[in-house]
Amino acid sequence: EPEVTQTPSHQVTQMGQEVILRCVPISNHLYFYWYRQILGQKVEFLVSFYNNEISEKSEIFDDQFSVERPDGSNFTLKIRSTKLEDSAMYFCASSDGGSLTGELFFGEGSRLTVL
Amino acid sequence: KQEVTQIPAALSVPEGENLVLNCSFTDSAIYNLQWFRQDPGKGLTSLLLIQSSQREQTSGRLNASLDKSSGRSTLYIAASQPGDSATYLCAVKGPTDSWGKLQFGAGTQVVVTP
Q1: Residue B85: which of B50, B26, B39, B43 has the closest Cα?
Q2: Is residue A82 scored above 90 in pLDDT?
């Protein structure tokens, strides 16, 4: 069964360092997303991406964050200068554009710990 | 602003009992509602998606109903098993939100005891 894959599963970094989280969405999907979940809190929308550009971003997604689809399969989230409060589980998700059901499929997540 | 609430926050039932999980949302103008399962430290697994025009969706032992006018959805899991132990999340998409922008509830943590 097709799935969304994410790497790394866990990354520990020092405050101020740059981090890149990687995702391979389901191959025929056209819409890509990043969400995050701070420990004990709700899953929060960060950004949606379609046709090589951001469709919508939340207030959380400030200038420290960027997304890219560098090739036909990968979708990345970069945090330029990490802060302690960026520690969270980051989920990549994708959905197709054909059926327009809007069903999202999530990856297993990348846990980011900022020290 | 849409608020999604799930009550109770936690639930423990003996194996074999039916599970009833509630989700409420403040703005009834939704495009769809999706139920997910989350195992500890893991990703979200999609269970059921209900479009705003639908009243319910079924998949195996799972049945989800939607009452848009009252801002509620209920997930029923029949004949619960220990493997059903997980956190169940509901999420809604607003009609004007970009594709895939979901508003999540905090989830209901379910424990099914053998």
Answers
A1: B39
A2: yes
Q: Residue B100: its chain A contacts at CB < 8 A?
A: 31, 33, 48, 93, 95, 102, 104
Per-residue model confidence (pLDDT) at position A100: 62
And the tokens for A50?
Answer: 């379609």
Interatomic CA distance for residues B34 and B49, integer angstroms:
4
Q: Which helix (H) or strand (E) holds A111?
A: strand A110-114
A32 vs chain B: nearest CA distance in angstroms? 8
d(CA B92, CA B30): 7
A113 close to B (CB below 8 A): no
Strand partners, B92: B33, B103
* DSSP conformation class of A15: T
Strand partners, B10: B109
Q: Is A66 exposed, middle or buried (0-12, 13-18, 19+ CB in 10 A)?
A: middle
Q: Which of A79, A65, A91, A93 is nearest to A20 (CA)?
A: A79
pLDDT digits (tens, 9 = 90+) for B8-63: 999 999 999 999 999 999 999 998 999 999 998 889 999 999 999 999 999 999 99
Residue B2: closest CA among B100, B74, B101: B101
DSSP β-bridge partners for residue A75: A23
